[in-house]
Structures are given as structure tokens and as C-alpha cells.
Amino acid sequence: MRGIEGFEMVTNEVVAWRRYLHENPELGYALYNTANFVVEKLASFGINHIEAGIAETGIVALIHGELGDGPTIGLRADMDALPILEASGKPWASKISGKMHACGHDGHTAMLLGAAKYLAAHRNFKGAVALIFQPAEEDGRGGEKMVQEGIMERFEISKVFGLHNYPGLDIGKFSICSGPIQAGLDEFDIVIRGKGGHAATPHKNVDPIVIGGQVIVGLQALVSRNTDPQEALVISVTKMNAGNAYNIIPDQAEISGTVRTLSPSLRDFAEKAISEAARGIAGGFGAHVDFRYRRLEPVTINHEAETKLAVQAARGLVGTEAVNDRIKPGMGSEDFAYMLEARPGSYIFLGNGPTASVHNPEYDFNDEALPYGVGYWVNLVETELAA
Fold it and tell me: Where are the domains of the chain?
């Protein structure tokens, strides 16, 4: 297992790749330039088995070790950017107005490319490594689509691992935990259908705006009074749309929001309870409700054995004290969860230093983190696939 000094020499080349990707962001599944860049780099490393066009612009490449037969493990990097106008002021800022790498996927892609170059040159492992470059993490569930298109079976992947940068965590430090590490994400819409009329005669109407206010208050009680306070459930109302005039009570109001939880069973509870609460409150005022609930990303759940392996690889790189293996789970969501449902694995955070938070116009991936990501991937492969 190698310490960080073994990977510092890769920094300049990986930095150049990262900054190129940052200057040329693409969204969702439309990652044509990004995918071409990745394929060209992989081919230049002498990797012969490269399959592109998976989930539209996703890529999987195989590197076979030289120490004999063994399993195949998957390493995943996301590639897509966000529809945000960049305000970082960096010389390598986005050249495309309204698009930027505000979540560090440029860094994730560059680090996996750096690891790919090292692993292809040394091949000091048995079995094989499947390099998974995924589109549409932000809003298209690209991880789910790659799983649905059969990458785990086609490439005989037995375990899968993910990595994400973490602003606020020091450079050279890692954080992880076994079990749930990121929340599941669902969305809901509640359409309250009342009876509109003149604002001067509210007693003749069924006001969906007033009812909507009561529904919003009622939903908060589902968290504070209907779920175990030691279990995480967040119900956030993020949109309310109704009316278009000062003197008219509208016929309907629409409330929308998200549900986040670390417990799969609480997703079932939330869907049922939100519907019943909205219909009950609205019915008491003489209104009707149309309810829609969409399950998006599942809970990201790290498997115990693979988490221990990830901790071992990270500590081999930076030392025991620099790896926190008991981080508190976060309430953000991550579509790598679909891959962890398909195969055992783990998801780890890498320190990005004191930068702006992700999804912020001033964010930029910290290039000082690059050798740590490359080193982590290499250590993980050479630990798991040792002869």
C-alpha cells in the first residue's frame, strides 16, 4: 500500500485534465465532448477494452491485472455539470455561460483518469478493474440507467466504490461510515381544489390558499409528532403556487416539496402520511386533493465489509487519524445508491479544503485534493485485488 508521496508526481497532468473539463462543462446525458475526452485519454493509456455509449454518454473501461485471475471491482466517477452561472473568478472558469462544474465532477473524472493511467501502467493486481464514468448524476439518474443497462452483469462487477469531494473537510482527510451515508430523495405535489370567487365574499368560496397553509403546518407534525425523533425524516415544502389577481380567490393551489430520509421504511410512511394528512385537512374545509409522489434516489447504504476495505485503503494513504470512519450521515442524495443496491460497495468523502460549498456559483474543485483521490483509488485496487 502506498502513501501520498507515491502519487504527487501525477498532479500536474491531472490538474490540466481537471481544468480542461472545468472550462468545458456539459449537462445531464449530453456529455459528448466530455465522453470523447475520457475515451481518448483511456485509449492513450493502453487500455484496450473501452465501451462508450452506455446510458447515452457513459463509459466503462476494463483494466486487467498481471497477478492472475480474480474478481472485477468497479470504480465510479460522475461527469456532469450544473446549470449555474459561474462566479469563481478562476482563470479556468467555465467558458459556457450558465453551465459550470459546481459539484466537483470535473475533479472526480480527472482523479479516476489519473488512477486509470497508473493502474494501466503497473497492473500490480489480480482480476480486473472496471472504470465507470457516469453521466447525469445531478438530475437524470444516470447511475440507475447504467445499472438498468446491465453494466454489473456485462462486466462481471462484484463490488463497486464511489468517491465525492467534501468542502470544509481538510485536504488529505477522508470521511465515511458503514450503513446509511446519504439520504433517499422523493418529491411530492399536492393540488388542492377548492371553489374560487371574489375576495370580498370568502364565505361563499372554499379558499385553497388558506387550506394550503394548514396543510403545510400539518406536514411538519408528521415529523415532530409521528416519527421517532432518533430517526431522520425531512419534509420540506419548497413551492406554493396559487392565484394571479389581488381580488380573486383562486380555484386551486399547488404545494410541492421533497422528502429525505435515511430509512427505506420511512419512505413508505411519508408517502402514505402526506397523502392522508393533505386529504384530511382539505376535506375538513370542503376541498379535494390530487396527490402525486415520486420516488427518486434510494438511501445510499454502505456495506460493512467494503467500508472497512475503503477505510484500510484511505488510511494506508494518509494515516489512521486522517480518516474518520464514523461520520454522521448527510441528508443530501446520491444516485450512486442504485449501484450500491445492485452490488456491495461503499461511498467515501475526500476533503476539498475551505472552499465554497457545492452547488454554489463560487465553488471550485481544489486541485490539491487530486493526488489523494488518485492514491485512494490505486490503494483500493491493490488492497482488494492483491495476489
Answer: 4-180+299-384, 184-295
What's the topology of domain 4-180+299-384?
Answer: Aminopeptidase (3.40.630)
Q: How far apart are CA 223 and CA 356, in angstroms?
A: 30
| Mean pLDDT of all residues in 127-140 | 95
Domain 184-295 in CATH 3.20.20.210: no
Convert the pLDDT of each residue in 88-120 to its tens digit: 999 999 999 999 999 999 999 999 999 999 999
Is-contact 180 326, C-beta < 8 A? no
Write the pLDDT tens digit of every residue in 239-278. Answer: 999 999 999 999 999 999 999 999 988 999 999 999 999 9
